[in-house]
Amino acid sequence: MLNGILRFLGVFSNNIGVDLGTANTVIYLEGKGVVLSEPSIVAVDVRTGKVIAVGKEAKEMLGKTPGNIQTIRPLRDGVITDFEATKIMLSYMINKVIGKSIFKPKPRVVIGVPSGVTQVEKRAVIDAAKSAGAREVYLIAEPMAAAIGAGLPIEEPVGNMIVDIGGGTTEVAVISLAGIVTSTSIRVAGDEMTESIINYIKKKYHILIGEQTAERIKIELGSAVIEEEEKTIEIRGRDMAGLPKTVTVSNFDITQSLEDVISAIINAIKATLEKTPPELASDIAERGIVLAGGGSLLRNLDTRIYRETGIFTRYCEDPITAVARGVGSILDKIDLIRQIAME
């Protein structure tokens, strides 16, 4: 009888894994896999306080809103900076994937967060998730979640190095026996790449461009190493006199604009390797470095890391969803969750 009841309740199971990212929030629904990936953006009417749009719809409004509508990115550098907006965003996304029903129990929620978050930041994430309807909340360090999502043998006595580059943070960690042996977390990642492009275009071409234009430039021309073949695209912005202006930028320009960010990421990798015990460092030299996160998709980043460290570097499958798949794949493994969860 008890087994039958448990099986019946299992039909309504809606536990979820969340990659609460600065740029995008990705949700994994137990039994279904990744079911949602939307920008972490909320659009609000500042006069009434009413939410106008969340996620993709809100991103389309960036840089195009009238004075009464404000687009908010409730997370910066991987942590909550606007609690109310985060609560609204999480509620919207959770309800979107599990729906509202009196028959559905509140979900267990496992959330990937930067390894360097403070106690105050952890509490903000937990409170936001519970306000959004979670029954219980566990926080997993993003590099651990990414390593699980990448299929690395985290519970074995071998060294695994994961580099998770998101929108707001770069997380570098060496993992063995289901624990993070050493790690480095820096608040330099995909957003800083975008910001560097905006500043470079402003300085060299004397025009202002928006975030979405800079993002397109990064995707089309961005590279971690100087490429042999020149590629160019035309971009439109506003000159210092306030008039529309069109200029042509090359991949050589954009590679130069990204150099400081790439150097910071590589320095974080080197710093982590320097702190790694010799036996685990030997494992990493043999097994290689694994890249995850949307920011890792910058062209030739794996080549640049190999050149700088001498260690083979590869991408995991679908880097953008690695953290979400990692937290999602352990939703039914409560003992492992409790073992690796942050305090």
Description:
The chain is of the alpha+beta class and 343 residues long. The protein has 2 domains: 2-144 and 323-340, ATPase, nucleotide binding domain (Nucleotidyltransferase, domain 5), CATH 3.30.420.40; 152-315, ATPase, nucleotide binding domain (Nucleotidyltransferase, domain 5, 2-Layer Sandwich). 39% of the residues lie in helices and 27% in strands. It contains 13 helices and 18 strands. The protein has helices spanning 2-11, 56-59, 83-98, 119-131, 142-149, 190-205, 211-221, 251-257, 259-274, 278-287, 301-309, 322-329, 334-340; strands at 16-20, 24-29, 33-39, 42-45, 51-54, 69-72, 75-76, 79-80, 108-113, 136-141, 160-165, 170-176, 179-186, 207-208, 232-239, 244-250, 289-292, 313-315. It has a 5-stranded mixed β-sheet, sandwiched between helices. Strand 17 (289-292), helix 11 and strand 18 (313-315) form a beta-alpha-beta unit. Helix 6 (190-205) crosses helix 7 (211-221). The longest helix has 16 residues, at 83-98. The radius of gyration is 21 Å and the shape is flat. It starts with a helix and ends with a helix. 47% of the residues are buried. Mean pLDDT is 90; it is low at 1-12.
